[in-house]
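Following up on my earlier message about nicotinamide-adenine-dinucleotide. Here are the inputs again, as you asked, copied directly from the submission form:
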Amino acid sequence: MTNTVNKDLNLVPFVSVDDMMKIILELGVEEMMLGICEYLEDDFKRWELFDKTPRVASHSQEGVIELMPTSDGEVYGFKYVNGHPKNTQDGLQTVTAFGVLSDVNTGYPVLFTEMTILTALRTAATSAMAAKYLMPKGSKTMAMIGNGAQSEFQALAFKAICGIENVRLYDIDASASDRCMANLEGRGLNAIKCNSEQMAVEGAEIITTVTADKQYATILTDNMVGSGVHINAIGGDCPGKTELHKDILLRSEIFVEYPPQTRIEGEIQQLDEDYPVKELWQVMTGEIEGRTDEKQITLFDSVGFAIEDFSALRYIRDKLEETGHYQNLDMLADPDDPRDLFGMVLRAAKN
Ligand code: NAD
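Thanks, got it. Here's what our run produced:
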């Protein structure tokens, strides 16, 4: 892989938050969801050739900071991401991120980008991609419990990728649902604000849980989940941080991204470590079946895996030339003689 944007390999294209917003406004949110979904499908279908490792997590009382690396042998990527549920009380984001893609042959970075917004896009595209394979046929209504930063992205991905028409919103903070409703206005979705989890799940074929709380929470209890529903559980993504009552897991067919990471971080941390789960990529390649009957409860126990970030990074890199929204960063030292790094520093004093 080469640096497609710069001839000068020492200049690394950098996509700032401002650039990312311009890219989204230019390409359109739903168009980007569909585009990222294509890249995700490509990468999930070649899952086996990737380097894979559970993310490297540094936990503290209030949150977690994580590094998420992977490589397909030609391109290497990683994301830095945090998760701090209490941040919003201080006006800060729960999740912020940035990421890098590099050329495996030279080790030189070819993209450096903000990934707070890109993570919301890739998480939503991944959720909707999984639902496309697992939800009941013809699903039109999704309940969404937790209406924070990820929520509008989730709703729009399910509209674009799965054909969802109605979203039933519930949040313990009613103002979060109000904001979500207002942001979704005029986007072709029928958004309904609900007073309780029970009200939100009424008539929904898909239930998305996307709350943030660093504890074993019970956002959904067993009696709220009827047969045939698809659950897209996103918020339980850390040791000690889950959203679903264990009984729901025992009634569901469970699909995960990368089992060694999900067993540490996902809803299934509540189950025995050898409890059988299925890998989403195998459903996508046709090696195993997804939903097998209308009454089955399917659960996508999402924690977010490095390959999803890799796909999103590849997508953004491929859009740089078309959109032109990036700046070149002088990130790599470039002495005339590669071994004369010290001399380069000395010569800078003369300039
Ligand atoms: P956020 O803090 O912006 O929003 C979370 C919302 O959940 C808030 O509006 C809060 O009021 C609400 N909430 C908390 N407890 C609730 C409860 N018991 N019932 C109903 N609502 C409740 O966070 P965010 O950026 O939207 O992220 C949401 C979650 O998704 C986080 O836990 C985050 O770690 C996780 N996440 C997962 C992935 C993934 O790939 N699986 C990616 C990104 C974020």
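One observation from looking it over: The chain has a mean pLDDT of 96. Hope that helps, and feel free to reply on this thread.
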